Structure formats: structure tokens, C-alpha cells
Amino acid sequence: MLCVDEKTQIQALDRTQPLLPMGLGYVEGVTHDYIRHGSTRLFAALDVATGAVIAECKPRHRHQAFLSFLRRIDKEVPPELDVRLIVDNYCTHKHAVERSSSTQR
Q: Over the stretch 47-76, which tens digit does the pLDDT of each residue have?
């Protein structure tokens, strides 16, 4: 059984100034300004029994990226095992192409 989800819009940020050091009575600080180097989307599947994770970053968050990730899961799980997925009700999980092209193992 795999719990599948995605984290969208993970930003790659680079602060314009170095981190401010920790001191007595205050924590390490960062400046308010940064340079944005784009974003990515993380797709991940957690094996509930073992804690193993299958993960993949994609440049876009579309149903094609989700289907590609499902194909990767299919390749990585041994063929003698049945695959059960727990997914939320997000729109990329409900696309018509996904329903018509899905296969059962």
C-alpha cells in the first residue's frame, strides 16, 4: 500500500545576504529579500509498511506528470506484488485520460 501525494510550487530561493548568526536570545536569521530560481513539483509515494519512499521532481504539475509518476511506481514495485494507492481528491488525480488508460495489476 502506497500513500501518494504531491507538493507543488517548491521554490528554489537564494538569499541576497548570508545567514545572520545565532546569538544569545535570538535565533539564526535570514534577510527578507531573495533571488528566485524557479520552482519544482515533488511527487512522492510512501510505502506504508516499510517507510520507503519513491520520489520524483517534475517541472510542471499536470496530469501527464502524475501519470508518468504512476508508471515509475509500476516499474519500481516488484510485479508479484499488488499495488494499492491512497490518493487525495486533487484534480490531477481525476483526469479522464488517467481513468481510461489505467491498468490493473
A: 988 999 999 998 877 788 888 999 999 999
